[in-house]
Amino acid sequence: MQAEVKAVSDGNTARGSVHAYVLWTPYVLDIAKQIGCLPNPWSYLLKSPRFALKLALGSVHPYTFRLNGPHSWDGAANAIKEVPCKTVKSTKTRVPKVPYKNAVRTLAEQALLAVLVLVSALLLSWYFM
Hints:
Layout: H1 2-11, E1 13-15, E2 20-22, H2 24-35, H3 49-57, H4 76-81, H5 83-91, H6 101-127
Antiparallel strand pairs: 1-2
């Protein structure tokens, strides 16, 4: 038993300069396999091929382990499908109410400055004629 734990822990850790870090994905997949909640993408292949592909090749989310097994959740599949939208919404920068307000003000200031320079040039040329 201890030899098996040692072999698994050696395979699931990455050595850093000071600490040993546990690699999350192999660790969680191993625990899910022992509990019996590891989903099988092949079982979803006929129902929804795109969802099966997302399970097989996508990232591992906690919702993945609620698809089947103990304490399964009916909304887990929808939650997995909505993960990209949730990620985009949470990392999207805030858009101001009037996005071009500063740009319009800058353009108006530049136009006013151009008009002032033009008027002053006309006045100076009229004065020195």
